[in-house]
Amino acid sequence: MTGKRASYARVGARPLSQSKMIDFIKILCINGKLSTITKFILDRQRFMEIYKKFSIEAAHRLPNVPADHKCNRLHGHSFQVTIHVCGEIGAQTGWVIDFADIKKAFAPLYDQLDHHYLNEIEGLENPTSENMARWIWLRLKPKLPGLCQITIQETCTSACVFRGEGLLSNFCHNQALQ
Predict the structure, then answer these.
(1) pLDDT per position as a tens digit, 28-72
(2) Which residue range(s) make up the domain with 11?
(3) Number of folded domains that form the chain
(4) CATH code for the domain in which residue 72 is found
(5) With b meaning 16 or more CB within 10 Å and e meaning fewer, what string describes 106-130?
(6) Which of 1, 90, 109, 122 is the most buried (most CB within 10 A)?
(7) Which residue pairs, CB below 8 angstroms and at least 24 apart, start in 108-113?
(8) In a domain? residue 41
């Protein structure tokens, strides 16, 4: 590559020196100040993402599909629920969060879901993977402020990923916490 593209490629291939980083930050400034979104992007560079997986055995049926659809019939899955937590690595602990804390926060939900008929759980009357992910998110987010993603895998080839309210809403939420 030649010209500016080549220089960008070279910069991306190795860590920036402190002076190059300062130059880069100056480019991101508006009227000599970092924009809120630029601060958010730079702060995210210190973040790490961890996850913990759980297996849930549960039965359900999807009541809102056509009567002849196979998912309208009662059936079960070995759901894999993956809970992702994002945050800075603690200076003292060396971790984002203790995996045991994720397990403890999810335990009441796990107990409600595992070996149960999902349609009988309030809020899961139509227990699609998408609705399960949102249901878990809404109940887990207050206990795990760093929650950044829920994955529900209902078969070995089918899954749903939920990241909450979206990047803009997450950004606004993070700003409100500061």
Answers:
(1) 666 566 666 666 655 555 678 999 999 999 999 999 999 999 999
(2) 3-34
(3) 2
(4) 3.30.479.10
(5) beebeebbeebebbebeebebbbbe
(6) 109
(7) 109/136, 109/139, 109/140, 110/54, 110/56, 113/56, 113/58, 113/79
(8) no
